[in-house]
Amino acid sequence: MIRIAKTAGFCFGVRNAIKISEKAAAESEHAIYTYGPLIHNHQAIADLEKKGIFAIEKMDEAPEGATVVIRAHGISEAEEKELNARGFHVIDATCPYVKKIHRLVRGETERKIIILGDPSHPEVKGIKGWCNEEPLIYRNLDEIKANPPETAEKLATGYLLVEQTTFDQYNFSKIVEFFKGCVYNISVCQTICTATLQHQKEALELAGASDAVIVIGGKHSSNTRKLYDLCHSRCEQTFFVESAADVSSIRFGSSVKNVGITAGASTPDHTIQEVVKTMSESNEFLALLDESFQNEKGIQLGDIVSGYVVQITESEIVFNIGSKCDGIMTKAEFSGDPRPLAEQVHIGDKMDVKVIKVTDTEVYLSALKAKQDMAYAVFEEAEENGTVLHGEVVEALENGIIVLCENVRVFIPSSLSDVHRVDLKTLVGKEIDFRIIRVQRGRGRVMGDRRSVMSEQLEELRNATLAKLVPGARLKGTVKNIMNYGAFIDLGGIDGMLHVSEMGWDVGARDPKRYMKPGEEIEVEVKSFDPETSRISLTRKFAETNPWIGAETRYAVGTIVTGKVARMTSFGAFVELEDGLDALIHISQISRGFVAKPSDVLSIGQIVEAKVIDFDAEKKRISLSMRELEPEEAVPTEEAKTEE
Q1: Which residue among the candidates 80, 108, 123, 525 is catalytic per the annotation?
Q2: Is 123 a catalytic site residue?
Q3: Less Cβ crowding at N or C end of the chain, within 10 Å?
Q4: Bridge partners of residue 261, in order along the sequence
Q5: Contact 104, 162 (CB under 8 A)
Q6: Number of H helices, E strands in the chain
Q7: DSSP string, 244-310
Q8: Which of 1, 548, 629 is nearest to 294 (CA)?
């Protein structure tokens, strides 16, 4: 009989990294690059390259501005900073379990870090790069005994022990027992991935119940090698194969009746199926396969299984799920999309489905419930790690909003929906970031928090803005509120005041709405900043737009100019020569004739021609005369007077 481990193949971290990379490739017209191979499997890497996803070992191998994905193993803090500094579009696909270790060691400032794992493995290198000081790294108990850490008497601060997520649970237990029996001040954080623990546990149980075991995976895969070692410790006839091509080299003893098959976390499902298919075509394994079907206990209710679409009708999808009977899924259990099934799914499509009903002759499946189960796993992980998730607001209620994430409705109370009191209806249709704060899988409830994420983002934005607030700095801002004396400009988490007198060089204009409107993005210059009061004064009187620059040439004495009457006083009229530059025509210079008041001759908006009669650069004053452009009237001579 042949049995395949339920946990065989991709783990969550690897599957998530591949999903993220494939999504990025599908949305991009250019190639996607992963910093190091996503998984240690040649076949999977070749499949990714066909989709435009290429692994690089050095940052120089990616073109400028390229999209670079951080693989599930994670990288060091220094490498992450350099990727961003180089201007790449960085997508972080680090496994959440690995990310948790990064946070643990980065936050440890007193105790020395001990890492259990392979120092040459990329995950361990990444963890090391988040430590505040050089950690101790051990592969096994023998290395610890050969080069033990300092005892508690010598190192008063103690140690924090973490492990590579794929570290052997058996060896981990032995190491913890060793430390308990010694004089060490060590705190143990079990950071082995729960999927790895389950994988290893099932592999051991499978090996203990089998006469032979086949372990499928890449020769360079650390976790697959550990699976092989675990299985070999329980079953002497354990074989390591990389692909279906290696099956022909397997030779079982005559006593082998039960064969177990498992695979590493970096092994694609199709590789496992190809191995089984190749075995089914070999006479040596035919009897074992026949016996497997004869003794099959059947798929259990609640199982999540992978299946291939083999038939599509108007109301149902039929799946091959590796059982002696096919699985059936109704349209309602596939999706909420009203379109015909033939437009949504195709023969040969593969998907994970949940077993919702089992009879003697039929197995009923649900894709929606499988996605929901997987989503709840993501939510539980996100709740534990404080991961920020993304979703669309689809409904506003009286007491909160509903966000759709991973096809699951997440409730966010109104008090946690925003940092300010807002009309919840205005959020519908928006994409928002939030955290999970409560998961009740049994009751089908998930609660989120947007306010804390917004507060952190605003604080981060505010700190970044504060660093730029030096007199003379140019910033982009959004007009927030307009008052009669000026406007408040949102510079990014902090507001600055733009007084009406600083909105332009035209000091005579006093209507802020003349210059801007709410929501408009404008450029401003920092005039002053008081860190104690956080008061920021802004200006739009940019030096290069100062109309007085070169005015002494444009408006030299004697120059004839044209302008528009902007305003009048009892002593004369001000004429706008250009934006921000006015000149005065004194009442005595309006006409050669008698003028009682300027409005008797001129009107607001009237275009007039005048002569520059005075230019004072220091006081920034220009005087004009219309009178001098008028023809002089004939003045009677002395001879004319005598004749009269």
Answers
A1: 123
A2: yes
A3: C
A4: 4, 214
A5: yes
A6: 17, 32
A7: GGGGGG----TT---EEEEE-TT--HHHHHHHHHHHHTSHHHHHHHHHHHHS---PPTT-EEEEEEE
A8: 1
Distances (CA, A) of 217 to 53, 226, 451: 21, 11, 44
Q: 43 with 17: CB under 8 angstroms? A: no
- Whether 642 shows a pLDDT value over 60: the answer reads no
- Strand 238-241 relative to strand 212-216, pairing: parallel
Q: Residue 89, Cβ neighbours under 10 Å: how many?
A: 14
Q: Give the residue with greater pLDDT, 288 vs 487.
A: 487
Q: Are the beta carbons of 469 and 533 closer than 8 angstroms?
A: no
| pTM greater than 0.70 | no
Alpha carbon of residue 172 to chain centroid = 34
Residue 67 has pLDDT above 90, yes or no: yes
Instruction: Identify any residues that bridge with 90 across adjacent strands, giving them in sequence order.
Output: 68
pLDDT higher than 80, residue 289: no
**Exposure on the CB side of residue 468, measured as CA atoms within 13 A:** 18
Task: Calculate ∠ Cα 174-179-183, nearest 5°.
Answer: 160
Give the integer Cα–Cα distance in Å for 385 and 595.
Answer: 82
| Each residue's pLDDT tens digit, 544-580 | 888 888 899 999 999 999 999 988 999 999 999 988 7
pLDDT in tens, 24-45: 999 888 999 999 988 777 777 8
The residues that bridge with 522 in the sheet, in sequence order, are 477
3-state secondary structure of 603: coil
Average pLDDT on 115-133 reads 94
